[in-house]
Design a protein that fits this description.
The N terminus is likely disordered. The radius of gyration is 20 Å and the shape is globular. A four-stranded antiparallel β-sheet has the order 1-2-3-4. It has a two-stranded antiparallel ribbon with strand order 5-6. The protein starts with a helix and ends with a helix. Strand 1 and strand 2 form a beta hairpin. With 403 residues, it is mostly helical.
Length: 403
């Protein structure tokens, strides 16, 4: 216990100081950046924004139509999550309209439908279990924003048919449970497939009474039990209880991939928060805080107080996922006030650096470098810009919570 406490204290001490309050931007300024960046997301990446593709209800992989490939399914969920963020705070109908279009576009453009989804009778199917999980989470949030049960019921169906079904038998060695990462790599149990799954199950428990007779629905108790199993599996096998690091995976031989990625840190935090909401078990908050401090401390120290730069590929989106779930921890009323201030300072410092140094003020696009804007003439990555938008929306939510 003393060792764990000492690690937590040292981690706090080693976090680089956040910008002073004079340096951190105001709520009016952060809203200006957030509004500009989400408009840039729609104008530069939403396929149907371009007259050449009026029914392309899908976010392009690069700006300037530099890449119209549809091989990356999972960022679509995080792009619509940003739209959900801005709709929830603005109630602007132009964002509301995107929900239905996106819901149409996902099965049409999903490359997984061609790989097996058609045969399985579900055009949302994808060989990557975590890809389907991100869409589940996005669909649940769209349901919250709109009250339209079709989104919630689609999330329930995906979870039941394609996610919980990937839970390994608990007597199967060496994993003893765990959700696989990819349907054709069934012997790899990854943080990216277990953290989100625990969040989904916990969230579905919270809505079990909605359209309770739906054939893919379960009782709140069943969902909660599944969420708890998944969380405890990840905690036991992929979490370092000494410092809060989340290891990436356990392979077929039971060996751990001992590296930590920010999005896995984030979803572990997110699962702990959602389970706390269901159970009130304060040990879950201890887990979440330790994991948050590892990310804001150890993982941020090498880049002067912010996470690493990431401009392309999957990694360009990882940090945004971390900040989404860090925000859910920060705004939790039961969180210790000192921890809340610590995490709020870190988040607002990160958002300030990103906006004032990393976003091109002419295009309002973020290219993935905290302290260097993306040149206007160069195509930008969807993943990086989603990350920037998510961080700015997180800053707005935290500032609102402070009032």
């Amino acid at each position: 216990m003393m060792k764990r406490l000492l690690v937590a204290v040292l981690t706090c001490i080693c976090i680089l100081p956040a910008a002073s309050q004079d340096d951190v931007f105001s709520s009016r300024e952060v809203k200006k950046w957030a509004d500009g960046m989400v408009q840039a997301l729609v104008d530069n990446f939403w396929g149907a924004s371009f007259k050449e593709h009026p029914d392309r209800y899908y976010f392009n992989r690069m700006s300037q139509q530099a890449d119209l490939g549809t091989g990356e399914f999972w960022p679509q969920a995080h792009a619509i999550d940003v739209i959900t963020d801005v709709y929830l705070r603005s109630k602007d109908n132009k964002f509301y309209k995107l929900f239905d279009l996106w819901f149409q576009g996902m099965p049409r453009f999903n490359f997984g439908a061609r790989q097996g989804g058609r045969e399985k009778g579900d055009l949302w199917w994808n060989p990557f279990v975590d890809d389907m999980e991100w869409h589940c989470l996005a669909l649940i949030r769209i349901y919250e924003a709109t009250g339209e049960e079709r989104y919630l019921n689609k999330a329930r169906q995906i979870y039941e048919d394609w996610i919980w079904s990937q839970w390994s038998p608990e007597d199967e060695e060496p994993w003893h449970g765990g959700i696989t990462w990819k349907t054709d790599v069934v012997k790899s149990k990854n943080a990216c497939s277990n953290g989100p799954a625990a969040i989904i199950a916990a969230r579905l428990a919270q809505f079990a009474s909605v359209d309770a007779g739906n054939e893919k629905n379960k009782s709140a108790a069943e969902y909660q039990d599944e969420a708890w199993k998944i969380y405890q599996w990840e905690r036991k096998y992929l979490w370092d209880a000494e410092n809060g690091a989340i290891f990436d995976n356990m392979n077929q031989d039971g060996r751990l991939g001992r590296f930590s990625l920010s999005y896995n840190q984030g979803t572990f935090i997110g699962a702990a928060v959602e389970l706390f909401r269901l159970t009130g078990d304060r040990s879950l908050l201890d887990d979440a805080v330790l994991t948050a401090r590892y990310t804001t401390g150890t993982m941020s120290r090498r880049n002067n107080g912010v996470l690493d730069d990431a401009t392309r590929g999957d990694g360009a989106l990882f940090h945004g996922i971390f900040f989404r779930y860090l925000t859910n921890l920060i705004i939790l009323p039961e969180l210790d006030d000192g921890v809340r201030r610590e995490m709020t300072d870190y988040l607002l410092h990160s958002a300030t650096v990103l906006a004032r140094q990393g976003v091109n003020p002419k295009t309002m696009i973020y290219g993935g470098r905290w302290r260097q804007p993306q040149p206007a003439e160069e195509p930008s990555s969807l993943n990086a810009h989603i990350c920037g938008c998510t961080i700015m929306e997180a800053a707005l939510k935290v500032i609102k919570n402070k009032k």
